[in-house]
Specification:
By secondary structure, this protein is an alpha+beta fold. It folds into 3 domains: about 170 residues; about 70 residues, no CATH class; about 55 residues, no CATH class. The protein contains 13 helices and 15 strands. The strands form 4 sheets. The chain has a 7-stranded mixed β-sheet with strand order 1-5-6-12-9-8-7. Strand 7 and strand 8 form a beta hairpin. Helix 4 runs antiparallel to helix 5. The N and C termini lie far apart (about 65 Å).
Length: about 400
């Protein structure tokens, strides 16, 4: 996901009893001076879009916030706004680790009734909790996922381990570390000035910052020489924490399956904004007038509503086919104008859509859709009139 904040809320609501989630992401747009960029990109100023969807991904509403809105400053206002707009309800806020501050979490615990939350926690907190977690038994949350539960200070810490995530993160780390090791070997053989060496080392560090932390690089105080070696102690620590997450909650729920499934709702965050940014091309927004920006976002929101509706229909009628792949198949159908001159200097205009491929015809049948009839032909006398003028 991009550099935006991510909020998610599960639980009851006033939407006819359905559950919904609050999501947010950063969308870059061009030339809106009053909305500064917190990423220090003054050529690509930003707004923040908060999207309210159900756990199934069905969109309900959205909000547009200034682009310099800080993640940790959005939560308090969202708590108040959602309660004011949709009424009080027993809610569970599911959040990424960058959203809540300790102060806001304390306010949520002190409120009457307490506001329930489940949020990610920086892995650095493991340093304090690791000894206590070692003694706790593993409990299966789902296939390939196991958790440990640690009650502490009116909160419950959930330490989760996913085998699929371990394999993915380990593969990413090895690929980056392999690239960095090869790059350092190249720089070692180059004849460079000290300044050029420092620039190239800095470039390598910025490209693979996570892998850089696993290698000790020492540049000579004078000259352009340097040495490097693998920090096996840090590597061992990283390997031990790959594919593992630390969550915290003030829920009294102790079923690891429910807690894990709550947190997995954040997948809807990534999917929603991946669709908005890629398939629906919500950015860049080439507008300066705030009202036009709002209109652009509104059109994108309506498009996303149709996109999700199509996905739900496909899930029921054509399992295994995504909305993205279905739209790619529909894109093969084009509307064309065929112009045929007649013997009396007139023109016959035939507006036709191209014949769908057999695969698309099968999809239309499964979706119970029928293409409209071809438009009737039109005869133009424009050429006859121009000829009379000559």
């Amino acid at each position: 996901m991009c550099a935006g904040c991510t909020l998610a809320r599960l639980g009851g609501s006033s939407f006819n009893g359905c559950r919904h989630i609050i999501l947010a992401a950063t969308v870059r747009l061009v030339c809106v001076p009053q909305h500064t960029s917190r990423d220090h990109r003054f050529d690509c100023v930003q707004i923040v879009i908060a999207l309210i969807v159900t756990p199934e991904g069905l969109p309900l509403a959205y909000e547009v916030l200034p682009g310099n809105t800080n993640d940790s400053k959005t939560l308090r206002s969202f708590l108040q706004k959602i309660e004011h707009q949709y009424g009080k309800a027993q809610r569970i806020w599911c959040m990424d680790r960058g959203v809540p501050t300790e102060e806001v979490l304390a306010e949520m615990r002190r409120s009457e009734p307490p506001v329930q939350y489940l949020c990610g926690t920086p892995k650095g907190r493991l340093n304090r909790l690791e000894k206590s977690l070692i003694t706790k038994p593993w409990r299966n949350a789902r296939t390939g996922v196991k958790v440990k539960l640690l009650p502490e200070e009116n909160e419950l810490y959930v330490f989760a381990e996913s085998q699929d995530r371990i394999a993915k993160e380990r593969s990413m780390r090895r690929r980056k570390l392999k690239w960095l090791w090869a790059r350092l070997a190249q720089l070692k053989d180059m004849q460079l000035t000290r300044d050029a060496l420092l620039m190239k080392l800095g470039s390598a560090q910025s490209k693979v910052a996570a892998a850089w932390r696993l290698v000790d690089v020492k540049v000579d105080k004078e000259g352009a020489g340097f040495t490097y070696r693998l920090n096996r102690k840090k590597l061992k620590q990283v390997r031990r924490r790959e594919g593992r997450y630390l969550l915290r909650t003030n829920l009294t729920e102790t079923d690891p399956v429910k807690l894990w499934n709550y947190y997995l709702q954040l997948v809807q965050v990534e999917e929603a904004f991946r669709t908005l940014k890629s398939d629906l091309a919500i950015r860049p927004i080439f507008h300066q007038d705030p009202q036009r920006i709002e209109a652009h976002v509104f059109v994108a929101f309506l498009a996303y509503c149709l996109y999700v509706t199509l996905g739900r229909q496909l899930k029921a009628l054509a399992p295994g086919l995504t909305a993205r792949s279905a739209l790619e198949k529909f894109a093969a159908v084009q509307m064309v104008d065929v112009r045929i001159p007649t013997t009396d200097a007139r023109e016959l205009l035939l507006t036709r859509y191209t014949q769908p491929e057999p695969e698309l015809e099968l999809l239309l049948e499964r979706l119970r859709l029928t293409l409209p009839a071809q438009p009737p032909p039109k005869i133009s006398a424009a050429q006859t009139a121009s000829a009379a003028l000559l």
